[in-house]
Design goal:
Helices cover 47% and strands 19% of the residues. The protein has 247 residues and is an alpha+beta fold. It has two domains: 66 residues, 2-Layer Sandwich (Phosphorylase Kinase, domain 1), CATH 3.30.200; 172 residues, Aminoglycoside 3'-phosphotransferase, Chain: A, domain 2 (Alpha-Beta Complex). The protein has a five-stranded antiparallel sheet, with helices on one face. Strands 6-8-9 form a three-stranded antiparallel sheet. The longest helix is centred in the middle third of the chain and has 16 residues. The protein is globular. The relative contact order is 0.13. The model has no long low-confidence stretch (mean pLDDT 94).
Length: 247
């Protein structure tokens, strides 16, 4: 298979165009199980009628695993915001409408949100035993939920193509409480775009009728789980959120 040009890059994979398809080529020695799991999750989400790229096959290219899927020739919602800042609120409202559509789906997935967070916190070498115990206690008191949660929902994972919005990167999706999924979005924005984070939370609560405190109850446990991803420039902010909770 000929890979034409790079259309996206990430920590573990590079996405290329190939004819009318996108090919996500993972780094050499990337876990084969994770590649097949991502393809499985993408295939499950296709059945929800959400607008997502279809997955066609898992293949090996020069000893590197890859996933072949639809090529969506659009740009990210974040790029749209940066190009037209006057329309930021309109784009954020559209993003929230998409997120609520996701949350309206009832899908069986291999992992539950709270179980995934628990595993990340327990295996986190950056947290003390005391921190872990506090975070796990908070997590235990949070609601279970049965909504579809994207797990990494933000403007870079929404592609805008000819007026339609496509949702990508479902590898972190789980079944769980929509409040936790919304708080994950808030956390990601707060780490890099604080003003957008506050706009998002205000608009999300206005649209759903939920109190901010209900969403933010998830913040410390999500920060603790995010810490396990070892993104160096985030550590100080994440620990601040965690420490503020247990004072």
């Amino acid at each position: 298979m000929e890979l034409d040009k790079v259309i996206g890059t990430g920590a573990q994979a590079t996405v290329y165009s190939s004819e009318n398809y996108a090919v996500k080529l993972f780094k050499e020695n990337y876990n084969k199980t994770d590649v097949f799991y991502e393809a499985l999750i993408n295939s499950i989400i296709e059945n929800t009628q959400l607008r997502v790229p279809k997955t066609y096959e898992v293949l090996s290219i020069d000893n590197q695993m890859a996933i072949k899927m639809d090529y969506i020739k659009g740009e990210s919602l974040f790029n749209c915001i940066f190009k037209d800042e006057d329309s930021t609120e309109a784009y954020m409202k559209q993003m929230i409408r998409i997120q609520l559509e996701i949350h309206s789906k009832r899908v069986y997935l291999p992992f539950l949100l709270k179980d995934k967070l628990k595993n990340k916190i327990q295996g986190n070498e950056n947290l003390s035993i005391a921190h872990k115990e506090n975070m796990l206690t908070l997590l235990n008191d949070l609601p279970e939920g049965n909504e579809l949660c994207h797990g990494d929902f933000h403007g870079y994972n929404i592609l805008v193509c000819e007026g339609e919005y496509w949702i990508i990167d479902w590898i972190d999706s789980t079944t769980g409480c929509a409040d936790g999924d919304a708080c994950r979005t808030y956390l990601l924005y707060s780490l890099y775009f604080p003003e957008l984070a506050e706009m998002y939370l205000m608009l999300y609560c206005k649209e759903t009728g939920k109190e901010k405190e209900r969403i933010l109850a998830w913040l410390p446990v999500l920060a603790a789980a995010r810490l396990s991803e070892n993104i160096g420039n985030e550590e100080e902010k994440l620990m601040s959120i965690i420490n503020d909770t247990i004072k």
